[in-house]
Amino acid sequence: MTLRDLAFAGRTLRKSPIFALTAALTIALGIGASTAIFSVTNAVLLRPLPYKDSGRLVIAASDMRNRNVRDFPLSNESFIDLRDGTKDAFQDLAGVFTFRNVLPKEDGTPEQVRSAVVTTNFFSLVGAKIALGRDFSEADGMPQPAPPPPGAPPGTAAPQLPTMAILSYEYFQRRYGLNPAILGHVMFANGQFSQQVVGVLAPRFQLYFPSAANVEPTPEVWIANRLGYDNANRNGVSIHAVGRLKDGVSLERAQAAADNVAAEARKNFLIERTAGYAIRVEPMRQHLVSEVRPAILALMGAVIFLLLIACANVANLLLVRASLRERELAVRAAIGASWWHLARQMLAEAFLLAALGALGGLALAWLGIHELLVIAPANLPRLDTIRIDSVVLAFTTLAGLLAAAIFGMASAWRASRPDVMNVLRGTSRSEGLASGGLLRKLVVVTEVALSFVLLVGSGLMFRSFLDLQRIDPGFDPRGLLTFQVLGNRGGKTPEERTAFMHQIQDHLRAITGVQSVAASFPFPLAGGFSPIRWGTEEALSDPGKFQAVDFQIVLPGYFESMRTPLIAGRTFTDADNVPGRNLVVIDQQLADKAFPHQSAVGKRILIRLRTPEAEWVEVIGVIAHQREESLAERGREQVYFADAFVGSGAARQWAIRAAGDPAKYGTDIRAAIKAVDAHLLVTEMLPMETLLERAQASTRFSLLLIGVFALIAAVLASVGLYGVLATVVRQRTAEIGVRMTLGAGPGQIFQLIVGQGLRLTAVGVAAGLIAAFALTRGMTTMLIGVKATDPTTFVTMAVIFFFIAAMASWLPAWRAASLDPTAALREQ
């Protein structure tokens, strides 16, 4: 293809501006949608993590296979065992966990700070750069001196080592104005421990973990972990382990080393043995995207289908155009033009149309990316890196070239083989339309099949979204406003802390319009849930009978404020919220499992929460199951403790139920909390209905995009079907005239054309059914309450598509039925 070919193609297309604009816009839709989704795919699935040699980074997570628990953090002791036992496989192993606390500013006002505790080798392992000061040294992670034995005289304990801290660059800039004098400065957290600043990280450093891990992505203060080893604390888990494979070490070899460590732990420790303790090693990037990969791949498949449909549509346009130009091409062939020269001309037109479509597609993709960032769910990692970069531009270029090849080859093949003698001998204006009809019909059948697959996918997502909307979360979200209260927990003794919590409750209840007050930790749909052990009496003789249960610490009145139905027994009262009362409320799911076919009220279960070994607690009530981590999944069984069970003050996530719009109470709530203690901080204030919407965001995101793609595909397919039938009417004008002369009525002619359209649709839908049956299985993890092969959805989408096809067939059929037979015969 030469510049001369392109110039001639440009002049030819200028003579048909409507055709050129229609074809370019069609391709722009396909390329724009695919480029926008590929930018997400590139950022989330393909682009390496911004760490040093990130392809060798892995996550080592523990699983409790006998209790169906995955991605469990490690204790200090388990981490050290893993680090020491895998030195042949890992170049290094580091650990991290994050939390939020309150630090006082220089003027004494409280400030919430996102903090991370890391092993001293963490930054060197991931390749983070220090902008000011120094990195942690090995000495910064030396364990604190052991406490003196019981009965030792006062003053015999060794002094505590200082805690070393590194600041994020953003926090250093915001809090300290980039003042280098911060090095060596000591910060105090609640007056309980000091943090000495030794360095500042380079800008924009982030942690990348799945949202389910509850790891803060942008900690502001990084604290050196002084790792101690004490088997008595082996059940205190918090650490997420990140390892770097040695050169030449495979993932399988690292997994084998981790398996040996886990086997040793199962051999030496009862809990690990009975829980089915295992350590799973997987690439860090794979671990990060495990939650979202199916949805992104499904969306990428959808836009590829949409691009193919757009190509098929343009191919049909070009085939009709080539048919109409058959006489011109035959003349050029008769005077010596080779088949390759004719094919080159059609390919040049296709290339120009694809180039215009690619440019328009880039503009649409730029707009689409901005909209995607607005509606993207919170669990989509690396949102801030989604952009049109060189890789995305290369994809757009490749998509344009492939599009040109797909829709250009068909027309080029058709144009390069004109039947010179028959075309030049023919006199009808529709003579050229008689050729290439089969190819045009095949293209339409392909469009219909691809569009039908997208319609089925959107139908399945729509059914899932409807089911998600109907799910009962186990509480009434209307009128609830949730928030966290961080800071001083009210004193050193349990009595002081209990009184402090009562004081907060009383101040919140005093707000005009507030109907009730609740507090809990964790809070439904706000994250932070972690399983503990539970069992019945048989677990005493067989520890393998222990199972996992999620727990919440609540204040009395929690269930009433949440309007969680009470099924049996009673809920907590103020009399229960005192130390020494081993009472629990459980959900129906746990009651059915622990005490099938009998009342759970008054029964005892074993629970391990505040002691190294499980202890007996009495069930006083059974409530309906709450959806805690996700609306889409029921989740584990649940057990609830009164706040005082763990010493009071743990229930830091609050909620008020109020009349009218709960968001309007924000100012009053902050004033009430400040009246209790000016150093308390109110954060993350959100209506409960917002949390519910966030829990639906992933399904809504997929539904919206697949639905839009399916709608565009259906429109393109109907336009393609219309184009073929309109061509058929023009091609068969004489035949229709003869039929009408011989007595065929307008209704029969109408049925003839509509019938042809519906037959093409039937073939396409049949092919689409087969493809959809195979391909929608990849959507299984995205679906809620509906199977990927749901017959209702398939039948409904088939009916809808036949209706669309009938509408697309109506206008050409009406035109055919309205023909004047005399005029039709005269035209031929």
Give a structural overview.
With 828 residues, the chain is of the alpha+beta class. The protein has 25 helices and 23 strands. The strands form two sheets. Strands 1, 2, 3, 4, 5, 6, 7, 8, 9, 10, 11 and 12 form a twelve-stranded mixed β-sheet that branches. It has a six-stranded mixed barrel with strand order 15-16-21-18-20-19. A hairpin with a 3-residue loop joins strand 8 and strand 9 (193-201). Helix 2 crosses helix 12, helix 9 runs parallel beside helix 21 and helix 22 (733-741) packs across helix 25 (821-827). The two termini are 38 Å apart. Residues 420-424 and 427-436 have low confidence and may be disordered.
Chain-wise SSE layout:
Blueprint (H helix, E strand, L loop, with lengths): L2 H12 L2 H30 L10 E8 L4 E4 L1 E2 H10 L4 E15 L5 E9 L3 H5 L3 E4 L29 E5 L1 H8 L9 E4 L3 E9 L19 E4 L12 E9 L5 H18 L1 H6 L1 E7 H5 L4 H32 L1 H9 L4 H37 L14 H26 L4 H6 L11 H34 L9 E7 L7 H16 L4 E8 L9 E5 L2 H4 L5 E8 L3 H5 L3 E4 L13 E5 H7 L9 E5 L6 E9 L14 E5 L10 E6 L7 H11 L4 E7 H8 L1 H35 L1 H9 L4 H30 L15 H27 L3 H7 L1
Parallel strand pairs: 5-10, 7-9, 16-21, 18-20
Antiparallel strand pairs: 1-2, 1-11, 1-12, 3-11, 4-5, 4-11, 6-9, 7-10, 8-9, 13-22, 13-23, 14-16, 14-22, 15-16, 15-19, 17-20, 18-21, 19-20
